[in-house]
Amino acid sequence: MSDESATAVQEVPTGAHPSVQLGELRPSRTSGRREALERREIAEIRARNLTDRPRWYRWFFRIFRFEEAIILGLLATFVTAYLLVTGAPSTASLERAFTYNFHGRGTFWMFMLWCVLGTGFLLLVATLPMAGKGKARKLMHGVWGEAVGIGPRLKATTLWGLGGLRAYVPFLACMGVYEMNKRLIPAIRGDTLYDQPMANFEYAVFGDLSSAIVHKWMHAEWITSLIGIVGLTQLDIHEAVYISYVYAAPALAMALWFLGRRTHFNRFMGALVITGALAYIGYVLVPVVGPKYVFEGRWLEATPGALSFMDDIKARNRDCFPSLHTAWTTLFLIAAYRGVRPLFWVYLPVAIGVYIATLYGGYHYIPDIIAGHLVAIFAWWAAKPLREWWDRRAGVVKEVPLAA
After folding, report:
1. Which of 82, 152, 245, 395 could bridge to 147 as Cys pair (CB 3.0-4.6 Å)?
2. Is 304 strand, coil or helix?
3. DSSP secondary structure string, 181-223?
């Protein structure tokens, strides 16, 4: 052994494994500087996170959920507009609208019905195998967490149910903002409508209204014959899928909450509210009522059994651009594919039917549909960083280890 090798061996600390190569225990200057820099950055991040903020600042972010804050902001904006805009609807008319919506045919009622009954059903399912093990324990992990025993599991189930009910508040709140918004737009925008430019665009591109083209395609003889085999009509199917948003979004939210997939649930709920907020702003900026209410005589009226409440609610409201039916349907597909894949495949045929029905019924123009897809994709993308930002403000910080 050379003198240099002998000196190197003597420098290896006592107890080092023979497989340690000479020189491995001597970090290079470059790696040493990098490690020091990383340690300093981590220390700075922790110092910023531990910095005392004003009490109200942190508690606001802890008390309110991300989507609740958006809804509160929208409500504050519309209440301010209601107080300032000349010709705003009377308080009595708003009261009648909200009262009607809690009637059995109103959207408020249908959202609440699905949310409460769905959560109640899942609570019943959660309590049945309270002392279960094995597969039952695995199924209920999203509800029980790590709780063991009937007492702790019952407590976890109760808290889970209460948290789920609160988590569905955005569904109802979105409908509340919609009711206020659709009555304010005429006062804000007057008689301004963009239906004619939308129609001109479609005539220039397609030679006719896209709704009229789809309506004609769907009445091909073979489609009518196929549907007639099961004793249904075109209108029955299109109306049924068009109102599916009433139960589809709550169903996905309940599934994610039940399975304990809180990250997916939070992102879906945040994206849903972002989508609604952008849609409501779009209704004010680009008031459109839809071809059914402008080019009358080309569309079939809704049947009394399936969609009568849709015409009652929609009427000539400026609520087309972007298409919220399209946006929420697309958002459902994205969230279901990422969170509960079986629901994606079950709902996919219905979702395709929703896209067709928005045009078949004369409710939307092609630009509405395109804008709806874009809003949904943007909302899903934006929900994650906005949620993380909100959690940091609330003091909920997740440190991610740096790669070696």
Report:
1. 152
2. coil
3. HHHHHHHHHTT---HHHHHHHHHHHHSS-HHHHHHHHHT-HHH
**b (16+ CB within 10 A) / e for 36-46:** eeeeeeeeeee
pLDDT at residue 17 greater than cutoff 70: no
More confident residue, 56 or 370: 370
Where do the structural domains in the chain lie, given as residue ranges? 184-392
Nearest residue to 236 (alpha-carbon basis) of 312, 314, 303, 299? 303
Residue 317 is classified by DSSP as: -
Residues 254-271 have a mean pLDDT of: 85
- Whether the CA torsion 68, 112, 78, 92 is positive or negative: it is negative
CA nearest to 53, candidates 340, 355, 321, 392: 392
Interatomic CA distance for residues 257 and 115, integer angstroms = 12
pLDDT digits (tens, 9 = 90+) for 326-355: 999 999 999 999 888 888 998 899 999 999
Instruction: State residue 40 phi and psi, 5-degree precision.
Output: -70, -40
pLDDT beyond 50 at 13: no
